Amino acid sequence: MAFDKLATTIAEHRHIGALKPHLASPPIRFLAIRAFPYVVVYTPEPDPPLIVRVLHGARHLPDALRDL
After folding, report:
1. Three-state SS for 18?
2. Does the CA dihedral 28-31-33-36 come out positive or negative?
3. Integer Cα distance of 64 and 13 in angstroms
4. If residue 10 lies in a helix (H) or strand (E), which one and from where to where?
5. pTM check: above 0.85
6. Residue 32's closest CA among 48, 60, 51, 55?
7. Are 32 and 38 in contact (CB under 8 A)?
8. How do the pLDDT tens digits run along the chain, 68 residues long?
């Protein structure tokens, strides 16, 4: 349920996530799932936005995002 709500929020407010250029080049954005230790990684530019990864927050993000 939390993921569905987050996906809807991203679709309605595509620039809500944070840019983190030290992890991935813009326009890639990051948004945490409330009450869960996961981060959604997405790009706001296709219509609808494209979720490219859902990662556990304990992962080493640079390694998990190396191929973006």
Report:
1. strand
2. positive
3. 25
4. helix 2-12
5. yes
6. 55
7. yes
8. 788 889 999 999 999 999 999 999 999 999 998 889 999 999 999 899 999 999 998 999 899 998 88
